[in-house]
Structure formats: structure tokens, C-alpha cells
Amino acid sequence: MSGNLIKLSRNTENAPRSCVSTQTVAFSHYNHISAQLGIDPKSGEIVAGGVKAQAKQCLANIKAIVESVDHVMDDVVKITIFLKNILDIDALDAVYATFFQSYLPARTTVAVAALPMGDALVQIDAVISNGEGTPSPESRRDPTYDSIPQARNFMREMAFHSQARNFMRDQMRTGEQVFFHQSIGEQTGEAARDTENEPGKVARNTEHAPKSPASTQTVAFSHYNNISAQLPIDPKSGKLVAGDVKKQAGQCLKNIKAILENINVPFDDIVKTTIFLKNLSDIEAVNKVYTTFFPDSAIARAEGYFPARTVVAASGLPMHALVQIEAVVSHGDGTPPQAVEDRHRIVIEANNTENAPQSSLATQTVAFSHYNHISAQLGIDPRSGKMVAGGVKEQAGQCLKNIEAILESIDHGMDDIVKVNIALKNIADSGAVDEVYTTFFRSDLPARTTVGVSTLPMDALVQIDAIVSNGEGTAPGLS
């Protein structure tokens, strides 16, 4: 089911192209960028030099993709950085700061066991705001669709600054740090599109959670909010909490809760979590803490609601932490000029099907507004509850069959997917996985990130999660 919006899948010659992914896939108010390596698009090779040179090329590739769709780097709302060596983080940050000068996106940084192309030291993917939205099939057929109205630029500027002043005045009463942001290109008369009714980006920090010089704690745009990955840092001391992985997991979740409370968002508005563990064997200990935070409200407890979830084995985490947790949050209020009252017209829809493996700690699919988050799938046969026989191709096929079954249970299909994340036990298995992967899609391929990890749950060889377009939205009474 595509609803009344369509995906826009695009590539540019100014960034490396792939036969198994699209560089940028936009749907509604968000645009997902495939993970970029430090590849020179002209030579097709990793650039010479160390991690700083590669990081610069990764970000240059993202910038080229972003600019090819008439956006700017300040439209980035979330960055995920995968390093081969977590100790390279300072070198990376020195380069990173040159690409984001007026505002810092939400961010996750993690070290993984392997990256595509053996010489790669860093890989970066991104989510950007897409204020113009994506069109309906009918409007794309309209020959005037790409016209650029300039007459309303002045009124657009006046409306935006009025909304910004009012919003910031209200927020300053809370004493917390807030940035109401509109991209630089949209603040000038050179805007490439009419942004009069586009939502703005709201980036916020609170003193009640750890602050970072490299990221903003929470960046909201339209009806979603991305939370920077939280380490087990005590915001008062700025140090890791003492104790084992349970103590650390609890602090990560406390930090997320503090960030959400600062923006008046309930904990059960989280639609997806990703847990990065230094030792995957710690997952049972983390789960014991996790269930003390979810479900949070009486309504959520009555429904047994858990967000969609992915668990990833990290080779290293910042500050030598044992665990790090990131979250994606539904944001029913929207961002100005969207009306706060819109929250009453959008609901979370959480669904499970018997045709895919179920978990007591995660919902298979959690939809909100125009997006749907799918929990990570292993190569498990839902009937037997066991890993399918065979190698990585068989397991990858089962992962994708499970995702397909979940999507079909909510009247969607594989071509509604906008982004796929693949974790491999052996990065050399990428080619085998690709042979299976491409058979599941009939139209443009989704954006994609692939990493190698040291281990996977159930000693699996591959794990896949997905983000899906949800054109019909999630208005009350639709399900």
C-alpha cells in the first residue's frame, strides 16, 4: 500500500554508486542516505591517507548527494558513524566539525568488526529532513510540478521568523537549550523551492542528560524525533557510572528518559531502539533493566507495548562503555508550523504477525505517521523457532522472508522499504547476500548500510532490519 505519496529514489554521479542500493530515498518529510565509504567517486577507490582523509571523503560524498536533491548539510537530522577503531574518534571529530558549523545533528558513533572494502576505516550514513515532502503520483505527472515559485519568498521569511520567535520564547521559559532551525538555503531569496508551509527543525539539549560538543541530544522534524545515542554517563559528573552492564544500561535509558521529559514526550512514544553492546552475551542482563523502562504508561502496559528493536555487537564504544542505546521517537506535536493539535490525529500502530518470529521484548512493526520501523530479523523459521538450515544465503533469504511477511501483514510490500540495515558475521559474505537480496525488490532499491560484526544473536550469520514508507499514515480508526 503506497497511500497518496510516492518514494523518490535518486542517484548522482558526484558520489559513489552501487548496484545494490540507491544513494538517497525520500518519502514524505524524511530522506535516507545510504552509508558512504571514503571512496573517490571518480576512481572508485578508497582515498589515500588515514581516517581523517576517509572521513572527509565520506562526508563529501554525503554532501554531494544532499546537494544533488537541492538540500544542504544543515538539513541532516541524524548521522551514524561506524569506525574500525573507536580510538579514531578524535581524528574524525576534527574533520566532522568542518561540515557542521551552525548546528549539530543527532549522532551515533560505534566501532564495528569490519566495513565493506578492506581498506575502509570509517563509514557514515545520514537521515535528512525533506521539508518539501514527496508528491502523489498525480502531482508527479503534472508538467508544472518542478516550477519554482519565488513571489512568496518574503512572506515565507516573515512567517518563519514569527513562528521561530514565538516558539523560542515559549521554550526559553523552561530554561533549556533549544535551536529552532531552518536550513541556510531556505533563509535566503535563493531557495530552490517554496518552503512556506514546510516544518522547521527543532534541536534541543537539556542539562539533565549528558551534552556532547559533537551532537545535539534531540533533533525533531515534522512528526519524528531522533535521539543521539546515549552512553551510561552521569550528567552531573560527566563520567561513566560505576558498576556492571546493568548499571550502565539503566543510565543510558535514564538519559533518554530525561531528554524526552524535557520536551514533554512520554517514554512510550519511542518507536524504535537500537542497543549497541560491547559483549553480546550481556543482552540478558540488559533485558532485565530494559523491561523496567518498557512499557512505561498504564495504557502501554495494558497493551504490552515494546518498541521495534535491533541489537548490535560493537567492537568498541566511546569512553570504553559496555552499552550504548539510541532511540527514534514519534513526535505527534510536529514542528512549527505544524499544529500541536495534530497529535490527536496521529497514533502509534504496533503489530505482530504469526508469520514471522515474535519477541517478548520487541514489536515486529511499529508505525507512526508516514514511517514504519521493522525490528531486526534473523534467519529464523517462524514455525520452528530455529535458524534455517544452510549458509548465509539461506539465512539472508529467511531474514527477508520474515520482513516480507511482516509487511504483508500490514498491507505493504518490499518495495515500500526506504532503508535497510544489514549486519554480517563475515563481511566477505556481502556478495552472497546481495544475490538473494536483489530478488526481493522489483523497483528501485532502498538506501542501505552494511557492516561486519563480531557476533550475532543465536550465532546467526546475518541480521537485517528496515524502515518502511507508510503512505496511509496512522490516523485513529484506520487500523
From TrEMBL:
Compositionally biased spans, kind Basic and acidic residues: 191-210
Gene3D superfamilies in alphabetical order: RutC-like (3.30.1330.40)
Annotated InterPro entries: RutC-like_sf, YjgF/YER057c/UK114
Region of interest (Disordered), ranges: 186-216
Domain of life: Bacteria
Pfam families: Ribonuc_L-PSP
Name of the protein described by the UniProt record: Reactive intermediate/imine deaminase
